[in-house]
Every structure is written in C-alpha cells, then in structure tokens.
Amino acid sequence: MIKIYKVHIMSLVVAGTMLLLTACDSQLDIKPRQLIKTEEVLVDEGNLQLVLISAYTGLKGTFGTNEAGELYGGDFNFFSELLASTGEVTWVGSFDQQKELINKAVLVNNSRVRDSWIRAYDVMNSLNIVLKYLDLAKSPESKASLEGQALALRGLIYFDLVRFWGTPYQASDSEYGVPLVLTPTEKVEDIEFVPRNTVHEVYGQVVEDLLKAKQLLEGFDKNDVFISSYAVSAILSRVYLQQGEFQKAAEEANRVIGFNVDGKNIYKLMDSPLKAFNNESNSTEDVFALQLNSVSTSGENNAGLTTHYARLNGHGRGDMRISQSHIDLYEDGDLRGGVVDNLADEAVIANVDQMFYIGVGGQNDGGIQTSKYGDGSRNISIIRLAEMYLTRAEANFEAGTNIGASPLEDINVIRERAGLDPLAGPLTREMIHKERHLELAWEGFTLHDMKRWKENIGSLAYDAPELILPIPEREIEANENLKQLPHYGQ
C-alpha cells in the first residue's frame, strides 16, 4: 500500500518547485516525476514553503489528470452525503462510482474511493516532509508557522480518513482505523508496508497534532489564506464532538466564536445564509476556506462540488438533485429553504437569490439544486462560523453546561439569521439536530452526524459496514499487512 501512495510525494515536491518557476500560472502543470531528489529541492525555507503550498493545493485535489483524487473539493462531501442519503438527495448522473455510494454498495475497486485515498496520503507525505525539514526555517517564528500548519492539516486529513474508512468512534476501540504514516517517504528504500492503526490510535494522533498546532499558531491570528490557530480550534471542536467529549467541544467552539481584536469579533455571520457561499475571497463567516484564486488550483473541474451540485448556464451537470422532501423540512419564511423556479436558461449563480433553484441551461435541468456551489472558481468553505454556534449549542446541551452561551441562545442566533422567530424553549435534542441538519445541508456533515447520533440510515444501522469505505483493492494487494473490513473480504 505505501508503495502505491508514498512514492507519489515527488509529484508534490516538483509541483511546488514548478509553482515557484511559473508563479503567474495558477494551474500546477504536473510533469513526470522521480527525476530529482528531495534533498536537491529542499535547500531553503522558500522551497519548504512551496511544499506546504502544494499540500494546500492537494486538499482540494484534481480530476482528469495523472494526479486524480478530490478531497475537500468534492469527494469528501459526496462520500458523506451519498452514503447517508435516504431520499433527500438523489444522484441522477451517469457515473457508476457515485451510484455505488448512494446504493450503499461500494466496490473495492471504486476509482473515486481509490483516488481520494491516494491523494490524502500524498498530501500527508508532503506535510511529513515539511515536518522533517523544519530546520530550513529562517526564524523561530517561521518554524512555528510551518510546523503548526503542517500538523493542523495532517490532523484534519487523518480525522476525515478515519471517519470514512474506519469504524465509528466508540468507547471500545476497533482495529479498523487507518494506517498512521508520520514520517516521509523520499526514496524507494523508505517504503514501509504498515498495517491499520486502531480507531483510538488515529484519534489520539489527530488530537495530539491539533493541540500542538493550536499552540504553535497562536499569535498568527486570522489569516485569509493559510490555516490559523482558531481554525485548528474549530477542527478540534469537530473531533471532540465526534468522540462525545462535549465540554471540550464547547470550549473549542467558544474560542472561535469569541475571537476578537480590540473588542471586535473577527468572525461574524453574514447578513443572510446565501451570502456565506460563492465568494471570491473569505467572508467574515469563513474560519477556514480553500482559496481557489490563491494557493489552490483555480477553476471548475469534472469532479468538483459545482460540477455535480449546480445546474446553471455553463456551470454544473445537476447530478446531485435535492428532493422536495428536504425542502419540506424548512419552516415557512426560512431563508435557508427558498426555491427560485423562474430562472432564465442563461442564468448564473449571481442571478439566484434563494438557497435552492430549479436547474436550467442543459443536461439534467428541471431539478432542485442547492445554491451553495454555483461557481467552480469560488472559494470552498471548509469551516463556517455557523457550524461553531451549532456545535457549541449541541455540546453544551449534552454536557449540561453553558460555556459562552446557553444552547437556546446559540440555536436562536442561527434561526434569526435565517429569518425565523427565536424559540422560547424548552429546547430538545431533536430540535438541535434539525437546526444543524438544515443549516449545514450538503456541506458534507450528514454521514458523520448520523453516525455519532447513532441513527439508522434507512434500513442500515449507523455502524453498518456498508457505510464504511473499503481500502482500495490495489492497496490491499500491495500490502499484505493491511486488513480489509470483513464485509469487503480480503
């Protein structure tokens, strides 16, 4: 397995070098690799920064090239929403890989699963190279920044890998986590055939990386491009929520919500839900977003969020179609549930003034589409402030605490932004779950939330093996130390 995905690292090192040489071109034109050695590339801090930049690029991923695999630019969203779907979203596209997901019958040779697995370990190998060569940093400050960012991104990716490919986190440990690879492979001799770590071991490493990153990045404050200490707290709040560490989740979310400079909050909800999406630069609501006009590959591609969620003139295929059953969940007047049904065929996202619309402009038009992904060249929001309010509300409710605010107050912040009357109480667990589902719909949360709430997905139990991705067949064949989930055979 490691032979397959770890030797890809030279692509990222070369990509970073090529970015330096072609700074005016936002596309990373990856050429054949293995032509130069890492020690010949990494000669100063500037080169190390470029390797880190290549990792940010890899967080999105690309499709249709030799470096396939979408992470936060598509597949991590689709894996969650399609596996968790019980009818609120349907797949009307022609690709069999996504059909396997929504049918809960993923094959071990599913190319989307394979490519995202490889991409994730490629990116983490790049991060491991940054961590190995920190002595190239010119100052203690730049060293702390490089180390903190690399640890933060590694923690984020491992967290999502274990949520998709591992069994759900529970008090009793499971051997079916994912392999932890914490040192880089720079040459063939470095290849190791590692087994899966347990779920608890992976979560332990994730928390360790994130806590250290949070400390290292403190003082760098908010950054519109790279990850910050407060974004790390937001990721930690996700991890703790998934583990059922509710007080810790509330504390980390509260740190993000309360971040202020000179008495002014840095992160603020946008005036309306629609304004939180399709932005060319970070909005005040973005805690962490992939910059498609900066460090990431700009433009739409055949695997991205816009391609499958949108159906507008020149944007999207309309493959991910929202059902009326989802729209019916919203209260009258909820700004998150409005549907535009009279767009012209030439309409683009700028012409859409509601959170949903009836698709126009060609293939698969006529269905309900979400407005969250309407232009493939806009930033991809990874963490929004709205999530932090919802996390703090749920975590405080479950812990019986009022860290920062009461659960009712936080839920009402989200409802009032959506144009709804505040709730008077009493607040119930079901009400909190519903607000989270509606606010974060189609952002890749559904599967993970249902697993930690221990809710059935159709006829499947929350921990059913059909809801856990298989390790790609080629990885199992290459590494005899890897154990496949019994459901998928060996």
Automatic annotation (TrEMBL):
Gene Ontology CC annotations of this record: cell outer membrane
Pfam families referenced in this protein's UniProt entry, alphabetically: SusD-like_3, SusD_RagB
Keyword tags: Cell outer membrane, Membrane, Signal
Domain of life: Bacteria
Signal sequence region: 1-23
Localisation: Cell outer membrane
Domain called RagB/SusD: residue spans: 369-456
Claim: Membrane is one of the keywords in the record: yes
InterPro entries assigned to the protein according to its UniProt record, in alphabetical order: SusD-like_N, SusD_RagB_dom, TPR-like_helical_dom_sf
Positions of the SusD-like N-terminal domain: 100-241
Residue stretches in coiled coil: none
Family note: Belongs to the SusD family.
Protein name, entry field: RagB/SusD family nutrient uptake outer membrane protein
Native organism taxonomy: Bacteria, Pseudomonadati, Bacteroidota, Cytophagia, Cytophagales
